[in-house]
UniProtKB/TrEMBL annotation:
It comes from the Bacteria. Gene3D superfamilies: HUPs, Riboflavin kinase-like. One of its GO terms (biological process) is FMN biosynthetic process. Belongs to the ribF family. Pathway: Cofactor biosynthesis; FAD biosynthesis; FAD from FMN: step 1/1; Cofactor biosynthesis; FMN biosynthesis; FMN from riboflavin (ATP route): step 1/1. This is Riboflavin biosynthesis protein. SMART domains: Flavokinase. InterPro entries: FAD_synthase, Riboflavin_kinase, Riboflavin_kinase_bac, Riboflavin_kinase_bac/euk, Riboflavin_kinase_dom_sf, Rossmann-like_a/b/a_fold. Catalyzes the phosphorylation of riboflavin to FMN followed by the adenylation of FMN to FAD. Its EC number is 2.7.1.26, 2.7.7.2. SUPFAM superfamilies: Nucleotidylyl transferase (SSF52374), Riboflavin kinase-like (SSF82114).
Length: 279
């Protein structure tokens, strides 16, 4: 469940901050957080494009308080003005942690050297964090997810990719012709490539093994759907928000020329998922 430490911690108590967009809260971001002291905080600059950990979802991946600032409100600031703002916001600030490629201020013209010149406290610059020689960045993780390469995305995230959606009514076909599924409306999160995935589904804090289809139902009504089938369990009453955790991709979305062929394939997808959870 979402934590909201930032509302509980007084900004006056904060002595160190890490600054960045932090979409995904991936392995490299976590390296920055390790440099913070026990009165540390995360200053997340919201560009409006965060879709790995949108809006306030970043708080879930850290015990440090996260404070959000809207990029449009601060991007016009000169370097001195930005530092002044930080010192007003966090009057006891002693240390700032950023990555090697951090830029800030009007036209992004200030870099880590500028930060060291302008801030009178300690500045820690973290070297590029890589995974097997590949730099870890949110934009690369987004590419992996869009390509359906969930394993790679999870490796770079340092955790399993998770989306949150609202339960909605399906076509009512699943139960009758295929298997029962929970249909979801997902608005804020980046969706993996169309296809079928081994997943876990969290409903009211309870975790279920599942298999999830997402894409255009090209075999039935053609409409776009995110639907999850809970393995070995009948769930009748899922409502509200549920979470889907992506583990691995099974296959691409396919158009079948009969419902029977789709049904056989769905059973095969279920078997692959069951085997994965059995091992
Ligand atoms: C594991 C699984 C795999 C699926 N694969 C496909 C597929 O490859 N192509 C497709 O058109 N629909 C696929 N579907 C979606 C079915 O067409 C869908 O479940 C059916 O239309 C029922 O929809 P409903 O839940 O809205 O009633 C899949 C569903 C599941 C659960
Ligand atoms: N691979 C990395 N190694 C070290 N520091 C990093 C790395 N990636 C990001 N950072 C630092 O983390 C902070 C947050 O950066 P940012 O939100 O731009 O992450 P990102 O993964 O590079 O995102 P994007 O791909 O969208 O640019 C910044 O201070 C940035 O310099």
């Amino acid at each position: 469940m979402k934590k909201s430490y930032s509302t509980l911690v007084n900004k006056k108590d904060i002595t160190s901050i890490a600054i960045g967009g932090f979409d995904g809260m991936h392995i490299a971001h976590q390296q920055l957080f390790k440099q913070l002291d026990k009165n540390g905080a995360i200053v997340a600059i919201e560009s409006g494009y965060s879709n790995l950990t949108p809006k306030s979802f970043r708080q879930e991946y850290t015990n440090l308080p996260v404070y959000y600032y809207v990029l449009d409100n601060i991007k016009h600031l000169e370097g001195e003005e930005f530092i002044k703002l930080l010192k007003e916001e966090f009057p006891n600030l002693k240390k700032i942690v950023v990555g090697f490629d951090f830029c800030f201020g009007k036209n992004r013209k200030y870099n880590t050297t500028g930060l060291k010149n302008l801030f009178d406290g300690e500045v820690v610059v973290v070297d590029e964090v890589c995974n097997n020689k590949l730099a870890i960045h949110s934009r690369f993780i987004r590419d992996f997810i869009k390509q359906g390469d969930i394993k790679k995305a999870n490796e770079f995230l340092g955790k399993e990719y998770k989306i949150v959606g609202q339960v909605i009514k399906g076509q009512g076909l699943g139960k009758k012709s295929f298997v029962p599924t929970i249909n979801l409306l997902v608005e804020e999160f980046l969706l993996p490539k169309e296809g079928v995935y081994i997943t876990k589904t969290i409903i009211k804090d309870e975790i279920f093994n599942s298999v999830t289809f997402l894409g255009h139902r090209v075999t039935t009504d053609g409409s776009f759907a995110v639907e999850t089938h809970i393995l070995n369990k009948n769930i009748h009453n899922a409502i509200g928000k549920i979470q889907i955790i992506f583990i691995d991709k099974i296959r691409d979305n396919e158009k079948f020329n009969s419902f029977e062929k789709l049904k056989n394939q769905i059973n095969e997808d279920i078997n692959i998922s069951l085997k994965y959870f059995d091992k």
